[in-house]
Specification:
Elements lengths: L10 E2 L2 E2 L1 E7 L6 H14 L4 E9 L8 H8 L4 E8 L5 H8 L6 H12 L4 E9 L3 E4 L2 E3 H9 L4 E3 L2 E4 L2 E6 L5 H14 L7 E6 L5 H14 L3 E6 L7 H11 L14
Parallel strand pairs: 3-6, 3-11, 4-5, 4-6, 11-12, 12-13
Antiparallel strand pairs: 1-2, 7-8, 9-10
Helix pairs in contact: 1-2, 1-8, 4-5, 6-7
């Protein structure tokens, strides 16, 4: 039984339920590892978890992508990828260069709603940042996906009330992250979307002064809580070790036991 059922669109002590859209302040900040960490903790609480990757760029057909990595780190998740393009570019640009159709926010929202019918938690991992274009005609971004899922009635769930999506922001640890994170959270909130907090995607083994100060400064500049800091290199662990690390390094709102004092 998942205690967060019955409270639409919120994070509970046994982790999130409904749809969580995972975005980053840019590329290479650890979105896939954080997505896997949230999934692993939710699975540990007995939730049925799906991970949706709308667009994977920079991979050829048949090559393992982000979904394969999430499934390896959090076995038991349902993984779904809608499209992939070979060039390591923004999705709309990569689709245009490949001559293949781009993925629209409408298609992504429809896939998330379908997965939500028989899963407690659906994680939608974006590509790059929240305003990176998925398609050009009509223009559409991950923020548009979230807006579609938020209106008019939220995300349907089998046997329960509808839930509104939330946007979880993954960021870097060190110098420069404050501005990037504040801008991302501001963009999310300006569109009427809920941002429950921020997770550092790759916390260094030997954090410098800027990283240590950012633990306190990130909540100050964004107005949302820091919900964890996943250790750098955690993606190289096996599934059992990774699940334990995820529980230790995600906050109670994401089902874990982390607090900044542990770093």
């Amino acid at each position: 039984m998942v205690c967060s059922r019955g409270s639409p669109g919120v994070l509970g002590s046994r982790g999130p339920a409904g749809v969580v859209i995972v975005t980053g302040t840019g590329t290479g900040v650890g979105k896939t590892v954080v997505t896997a960490a949230v999934a692993a903790v939710a699975l540990g609480w007995g939730q049925r978890v799906a991970v949706l990757k709308p667009v994977q760029t920079g991979v050829e057909p048949g090559e393992p992508g982000d979904i394969a990595e999430v499934v390896r780190l959090a076995p038991g998740v349902t993984g779904r990828e809608l499209a992939r393009y070979p060039d390591p570019l923004a999705p709309a640009t990569a689709a245009r260069r490949s001559g293949a159709p781009a993925v629209t926010p409408v298609a992504v929202a429809a896939a998330a709603r379908q997965l939500a019918l028989d899963h407690d938690l659906v994680l939608v991992e974006g590509a790059g940042g929240v305003l990176v274009r998925l398609c050009d005609d009509p223009p559409g971004t991950l923020a548009d996906v979230a807006r579609l899922l938020a209106a008019p009635q939220g995300v349907p769930r089998a046997g329960g009330r509808n839930r509104l999506p939330v946007v979880l922001v993954v960021t870097a640890a060190g110098l420069g992250t404050l501005n990037h994170t504040a801008l991302t959270v501001e963009a999310v909130r300006a569109r009427g979307l809920a941002c429950p907090g921020v997770v550092v995607g790759a916390w260094p083994a030997s954090p410098d002064l800027a990283a240590r100060c950012n633990l306190a400064d990130l909540p100050l500049v964004t107005g949302v809580p820091l919900l964890g800091a996943v250790p750098d290199g955690a993606g190289g662990l096996d599934a059992a070790e990774f699940a334990a690390v995820a529980r230790r390094n995600l906050a109670p709102a994401l089902g874990g036991a982390w607090h900044t004092s542990r770093l």
